Structure of CBS domain protein:
Amino acid sequence: MRARDLAEDYPLVKLSDNALDVARLIAEQRRPGVVVVDDDRKPVTVLPASQVLRFSVPGYVQEDPSLARVYDEQGGADVCVRKLSDRSVGEVLPPKEKRYELPMVTGDATVLECAATMARLHTPLIVVADHDRIHGVVTASHLLEVILNASESPA
Amino acid sequence: MRARDLAEDYPLVKLSDNALDVARLIAEQRRPGVVVVDDDRKPVTVLPASQVLRFSVPGYVQEDPSLARVYDEQGGADVCVRKLSDRSVGEVLPPKEKRYELPMVTGDATVLECAATMARLHTPLIVVADHDRIHGVVTASHLLEVILNASESPA
């Protein structure tokens, strides 16, 4: 079994997509994040859900979360939504030097190669792509399942 | 709405649990990780699925993933499973100084406080607990959903 056989569909968003729409996508599908691609569908980075929160929560509340109590529930939510509503995904990403290295393997990578790449980069998912054609994504939990099923070690 | 109302059940594992059993739990439930508690059910840290892979994949394969091809599929899987089979969760965790700071809020934390804590620690989930009684876990995507629903901003 190779990476391309394991790859599952995963939400891809463009750098130019609206950040609030992407927040809705993450919320509705309960994803930990999305893969960001450029206009040629070339993978760029991963946008974690926590980064969307980081962008939308006012800085002084992040520094001192007790300040969050100056807002009532709707007021706090409005502040967050307004910060996202006229932004693109590209604007919500961390600066380039702070972005996650995009974990990627080619379609013919073996199960153990996928595991090694994921282990080295401490990432919960890797993108499977050949020449910028994206096959999909493999998660760490899926890979563990494949490894446990493939092994005949008594355990 | 407060953190305790948002908290969802999440797999808790003990430091003394068998690492291979925990790998199976992560695989079966397709979780990105589990919360680790001590014998008094006091939360200790988060064990990400990628750390289980990191522990189980031989070091020389992590350094050079192309070496993974010296194994066939079952052989590679057997190596990984054997490394986990007689280990406890405590042995699989990174050394203390490299562990994730356990992101935690009290049951009465507001939505915006949860978001601020998650944003500050770049974490996809936070543990909700009072005096070491764990209410559950809130994920970043769930929190985005609550924020988007609470806001009346036109968007």
Summary: Chain A has a mean pLDDT of 89.
